[in-house]
Amino acid sequence: MTVAMPFFDPASDPGSNFPELLRRSGLGSAIAGSGTVDGPPATTCVALRYADGVVMAGDRRATSGNLISHRTMEKVVQADRYSGVAIAGAAGPAMEMIRLFQLQLEHYEKVEGATLSLEGKANQLSAMVRGNLPAAMQGMVVVPIFAGFDLRRSVGRLFAYDVTGGRYEEREYVATGSGSLHASTVIKVGFAAELDRGEAIDLASRSLWEAAAADSATGGPDALRGIYPVVAPVTADGWERVDDGELALRFEAIASAVLARSEAPDPIETDGGAR
User: Annotated catalytic, 44?
Assistant: First the structure.
């Protein structure tokens, strides 16, 4: 069977929009949705390098439209002993992808008798994100962050992805989700190459605080319910999740600093407003 290639005049040319090409070729039923892939919504996840490895952090709010559907969802998850994944996007496909990724890493270790290299883990996750592209074109976008400690290089490494499975290694920090612009700005201002563990955790926590203040889909710390973001350093000693007691003290310090800044005298008012 031979299928003739369609021809378009300048007015009807779909350009580089592949879903629109399918529609105008009479194959519109092959896809659903708007034909555009929007950015990952309703979360903020970050990861940054520091002297001993990497720190990953993510809020815990899940939304359905303008409603908060879940307050304790964990979007930063341990992949294996020396790596973790942070997810943004559609919760169902994202959690399924993470569980399958964890299973694949565990299976490889049992079969080969050794852990997969960090580079290999990043490539495997890239293939899984690429496999989700048909669902992403229907609105079920999944865009992860992968980070871990590379035992061969003795250094923490960060990887960002796009919806097509493109993998990009970042040198300093990475953020994803609807609050990523606000979070990455905070990290950019406070980042230094030789941050220690406490400084890195504080910077990641402050970035989530500011993202939650500006983005309604990002959940901040909830002291009343005892709910705090997931924050996890990954070093040569492996994955370590920071306990909520420590995070409560760190977010209390952030809140105190924000309050002190808001109560500082306004220079315009104290100047009298006259020249």
Answer: no
